[in-house]
Design brief:
The complex is a heterodimer. Chain A is an all-alpha fold. Chain A has one domain. Chain A has helices spanning about 5-35, 40-55, 60-85, 90-115, 140-165, 165-175, 175-180, 185-215, 220-235, 240-255, 265-280, 290-295; strands at about 130-135, 135-140. In chain A, strands 1-2 form a two-stranded antiparallel sheet. Chain A is globular, with a radius of gyration of 19 Å. Mean pLDDT of chain B is about 85; it is low at about 355-360. By secondary structure, chain B is mainly alpha-helical. Chain B contains 15 helices and six strands. In chain B, strand 1 and strand 2 form a beta hairpin. In chain B, about 70% of the residues lie in helices and about 5% in strands. Chain B is globular, with a radius of gyration of 23 Å. Chain B has one domain (about 1-310). The chains are: A mainly alpha, B mainly alpha. The interface of A and B includes residues 91, 100, 101, 104 and 263 of A.
Chain lengths: ~300, ~350
Amino acid sequence: MTLELFIQYLFAGITYGSIYAIVAIGFNIIYNTTGIINFAQGEFVMLGGMISISLLPLMPLPVAIAAAVVITMLFGALLEIFFIRWLENPGVLRMIIITIGLSILTREGALHVWGESVRSLPYFVGNEISSVEILGARISPQVLWVVGACGLMVLFLSIFFKTTSVGREMRACAANRKAAILCGINTHNMVTFSFMLSAGIGALAGSVMSPITSTSYDIGTGLAIKGFTVAILGGLGNSMGAVGAGLLLGILEAFSISVVPLAFKDAISISILLIILFVRPHGLFGSRTAAGLKEF
Amino acid sequence: MRNLLSLLPLVGLIIIVQLLTSWTDTTFYLTQITMSAYYSLLIIGLCTLMGYAGQISLGHAGFFAIGGYISAALTTHNLVAFKETALIRMLDGFNILMSGEDIYGDSLMVINPWAACIVAVLAAGLIAWVLGIPVLKLKGHYLAMATLGFGVIIYRIVLAVEYFGEADGISEVPSFTLIPGLEVSGDFGARVENYYIAWGLVIIGMIILRNLINSRVGRALRSIHASEEAAGAMGVNTSRYKLQVFILSAIFAAVAGVFLTHYNGGIGPSEAGVMKSVRYVAIVAVGGMAHLWGALTMGVLLNFLSLRGVFGSYDDAVFGLILIIIMLFAPNGILSLNWKGLLDKISGRTNKGKAAGGKD
């Protein structure tokens, strides 16, 4: 393998990896505040892409994407308010089934609104064939947009959770919900907020990736499985771990298709998921003791 | 014996439905009822796993597909080209090959459906065993995701491997002669006979599962569902029981896959899809997790409606909606809702109203 080809694969891996990382962080945000794995996480990404594509004829691209993010955030908040907020102590099995049901309904709704056709946003800069040269490899400028947007989101989230009071309240809610209630934090609102936040970052990722990967109504399930793989790989609830694990899985996948047929790409990443689950369920970067204390 | 007697109403109902459709000349309904019965066989197996052992599986369409696809592939791929190889001669020596002619008059040599069925079911059991040992150590989200992942892998494999027909699936699967004169096939003339074959299988399945649930093993399973730690502390070998039920439910799924594939004369990749697994879980949930009769009733009813196309293009959406509504309002299934209490409440209220009205 030449250096150029190596870098080409590497960038393809980083592109997909950063998207997986964002989906995984979306899982983590909700998991941290509620202990729920939201199986509808991939649907937020699909909605973000689809809504911005539909809004594009009406308004300029940045506004369309911003509007799509806001609409998806509202959608996430509504899901939480209508289907999750009022349940008292729901069991894990019950929550799994409810979020799976929500993901099916969202997907089927999208199918009836947008149909089966595959759509995509135009390239933000240039077109399909414009490229920039990095170390001899030629990559699309859109790749830089994806990687940049995902990087900014991670930066924004870490600042948000460290410095703002809402971010701190959400972390308190994650650390110990009862104690957070005693401190006067409205944990219900924090949960709604965590749904909005993860819907928002999912939608933004869905918009910036759309020119490269295209968007259709059924991309959610695949992304959710990959995102969950990454979340587990990085240690459930650990967002920085998710970034590392996302890039790792993306790069592994990119290089795997140079060895095995493309049709088996998903099978490979899921096999990785199964192996990780069997060998290190607390993730590559997590600690076994901390994982043992969590409720699954 | 009581166990068997309680199945008599079901047998009666099955016969009545058949007679009714014959009298009213609507035997075409039997086709969908037969297919629903096969799906229900999978569903009662899954019900035992989910409701009694408390382990979720989002990969049971995978086991169904393993059964259906292996049986279809073995009984369809022509082996004439390999006639002279040692392996084929050995198989022929064991009398498990079937020779014949295809519609163009070329000679055809395939594996006998009985042998294929046994291989398919054993394969599903073996895969469940290998998969179950590590997977059943997981709980909650992890177990759900791991079984979902297994289902996706099977789906990707049947979609990518030429031997399994890729996106087209396998068609022209021959009929399956159970005993001379009784065969599983989709011929219109064999409708009634196949209706009884399917229900015979379901009844055998119900007898096996009801015996299991009412036995020592069943009590152990329920104790695992209630609290795995407590069950373990009382000396129940939790991992062994969980694994056994997982394998049993996989075998039920594979048998359903084998028979339905022969009945339909083919199988496609959609049978292995994630939505199918979710649908099975939905039906078990609607029937009330630990409720074999509920699972059987809902399995036949919902599959029948779905196969008749009642839900149109909203088929998957309907199952998603059912899942959400049941889990939000009746997490123990609609049959377990306190209907009598509800009625009493309503009538009680009106009675009170009347009583209050009488005093005035």
